[in-house]
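Weekly structure sync, notes
Attendees: PL, DS, HV (note-taker this week)

Item 1: N-acetylmuramoyl-L-alanine amidase
DS walked through the input record. Source organism listed as Balneicella halophila. Sequence as pasted into the shared doc:
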Amino acid sequence: MVYKKIGIVLLFCCLFMEFSFAQAVRKVVIDAGHGGKDSGTVARTRKHQHEKVIALAIAKKVGHYIEKNFSDVEVIYTRTKDVYLTLNQRAKVANKADADLFISIHVDAVGSRSVSGASVYVLGLHRSEDNLKVAMRENAVMLQEEDYKTKYAGFDPKDAESYIIFSLMQNQYLNNSMTMASFVDKHLKTKTKRHTKGVKQAGFYVLREVGMPSVLIETGYITNSSDADYLCSATGQDKTAYAIYNAFRDYKSFVENHTTDLGKENMSQEKVTEATIGDDDTYFTIQLAYSGKNLTENDPYFKGLSPIFKYKKGNGYRYTYGRTKSYTKALSLQQEARAKISDAYLVGFHQGELNMASVVRTILNGK
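Item 1 (cont.): predicted structure, written out as tokens:
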């Protein structure tokens, strides 16, 4: 069953092997989460205000700020009314428009009423159980569709194994997505004067399907009375929208004015070992990054970790630290890596393909 899923995953990955670098930001899609029969999360205060209502109000305000200040930018909404859209339909709007940026706006929820703060997500494999739960909740909207497993090619939002796809994908838009996400987090802190939980990665299906830099913003916790009161108020919605607008402004300026010379390489630095994988190789390694740049082992990003291996995939490279067949040693390597790179995580390889560490552990234990 696992290998069948991996085969489906690799089929999807073929869609993401071409790299393109945006030179201008002329179209932005603003996606108000949920809608219609899908209410999203529901506030315990403020007369049971729904996430779909808050998200739409903020989305419209963000669009208004952009339209008012940038005559050269076309704002496209996935919805402007209380209507239901599937995740595929949302992505289709963005892809059909050939947009330069996709911004999805949501409100988070959790069992504990004390948890608060906004989070900004980009596409990737979850680094924690909490991130996975958020992605599962947002992806669960597809369960409202008939025959959703066929429509979404076997992806099951309730099954953690389905999320292996997000570790295998080569997302050429990650760097720009991270840039936008960082700007959003920065301005949410400064403009709203409220707590934020930083930039994270998780497997949001709608982010996977859009062919452009993208972020998903959880603007706060509707289950927290302070966050709910703020987000249900006109002032809170306006300040949140203004923060997102300022992030867009900074991102647009960065993309249109920032240039990077990817062709130059300091030949005095030690090169990273080019990894080769035999069909019978099975081992653990610690993934550190995926980048379009051909980095050296002395690159500051790796913070002295060695040995570093790189795996050529499409037009980019996957960088990992160490190799071992011992699960205990692998956990030790992960601990070492996380002391320097907090989002490093354990993966495995088997028969030339990337796998979840749990799959590789089972295979090695059976040998």
